[in-house]
Each structure stands twice: as C-alpha cells, then as structure tokens.
Design brief:
The protein is of the alpha/beta class. It has a single domain, classed as Alpha-Beta Barrel (Aconitase, domain 4). Helices cover 32% and strands 19% of the residues. The protein has eight helices and ten strands. It has helices at 21-24, 44-47, 84-92, 104-112, 122-130, 157-165, 169-174, 177-186, and strands spanning 7-9, 11-14, 48-49, 52-53, 69-72, 96-99, 116-119, 135-138, 143-146, 149-152. The strands form three sheets. A four-stranded antiparallel sheet has the order 1-8-9-10, with helices on one face. A hairpin with a 2-residue loop joins strand 3 and strand 4 (52-53). The longest helix has 10 residues, at 177-186. The two termini are 36 Å apart. The model has no long low-confidence stretch (mean pLDDT 94). It holds the Pfam family Aconitase_C.
C-alpha cells in the first residue's frame, strides 16, 4: 500500500446522501479477481447511460479530472460490506473521502486500503462543498485547509500510523514477526 502523503486537490462534490456500496460499484462488476480495475466502474449507473457518459454527473465534468478528494453527504458507504467499493474509489484516484458520516464497515475498509475517510460537521462539509479552489488534507497534522478554512479532524492513532506508513494487514502482522517467531519456537510440538 502506498504511504499517505499530504493531498492537495480540487474536491469532487458528490451531493447525495445514503450512497451505498452498490451505487459506488454495481454488483455486475464484481467479477474481477484482483483489487485493480474497478475505477472504471465507479458510480457506473450514475456516470453512464447505455455506455455513454452522462454530462450531468460530476465525475464526467472535466473540472474534476484527477481529483483526489471526494466530498459526500451523510451515511456514505452504507449497504453491503463489499470491499470493492473502496477499491473502486482508490483505483479511480480518490485518496480522501470527506463526509459527515460513514457506514462502519466501509469506514474501516477505507483505512485498510489506503483511503482516508474524514468525518466533519455538516457546517464544515457545507463550506467545503462551496469551495472551488484546491483543498489540502494533511494527515500528519490532521488538518484540512482551503480558501480561508482550517479545521482539524480526528483519527485513531492506529489508523494514522497505517496510512502514513502504507501498511496493509500483512505488513502490520510482519511488524510483529520477531514475537511471532519467538512464540512459534516456544510452542513447537
């Protein structure tokens, strides 16, 4: 997993509540056997109509090309627990999702896949939605800066370390390799 660095980007405003994982990546695209390749299917049913890009959907707006920050409304990532939803966001290029609330499983899946989910108040989110310039997200200082706004966000120390160091579950386990080896040696049968 790639270590998280400071992100500075135009934010893509997805002005919808209760976006579920079926909307993030529809079920018909879950046949891939690897974690990559899902970005092309992100919000597919909203982005395309009979395979043609819909001009009225935010991801098809050239102003948001290469955006690394997604702004979303309440209860983002609800629905099924599929990890594919986070894979699609990451593969598309989003490294940060800012919302007022997330479904718990989705929230944890973000950290495990290198995407930073940030919870902010409705007031702050509304201000971020109105900004047309770049937003800076700094994980080390746990801050968001944009157009005169500076706000701190909370993150559990464990998740912060995971993202800053780019550790997946296997890498976290290997941090304890010496203890694992010592345990295995002491419990040989």
């Amino acid at each position: 997993m790639e270590p998280f660095k400071k992100i500075k980007s135009i934010a893509t405003p997805l002005d919808k509540v209760n976006v579920d994982t079926d909307q993030i990546v529809p079920k018909q695209f879950l046949k891939l056997i690897q974690r990559t390749g899902f970005g092309q299917y992100l919000f597919y049913d909203w982005r395309y109509e009979k395979g043609t890009p819909r001009k009225d959907f935010v991801l098809n707006d050239p102003a948001y090309a290469n955006s690394k920050i997604l702004l979303a409304r309440d209860n983002f990532g609800c629905g099924s627990s599929r990890e594919h939803a986070v894979w699609a966001l990451d593969d598309y290029g989003f490294r940060v999702v800012i919302s007022t609330s997330f479904a718990d499983i989705f929230y944890n899946n973000c950290f495990k896949n290198g995407v930073l989910p940030i919870r902010v108040s409705d007031d702050i989110l509304q201000k971020l939605f109105s900004i047309k310039s770049e937003i800076e997200v700094d994980l080390e200082t746990q801050s968001i800066k944009a157009d005169g706004i500076q706000v701190s966000f909370h993150i559990e120390p464990h998740w912060k370390k995971i993202l800053l160091e780019g550790l997946d579950d296997i890498a976290v386990t290997l941090l304890h390799e010496s203890e694992i080896v010592r345990y295995e040696k002491s419990h040989k049968t």
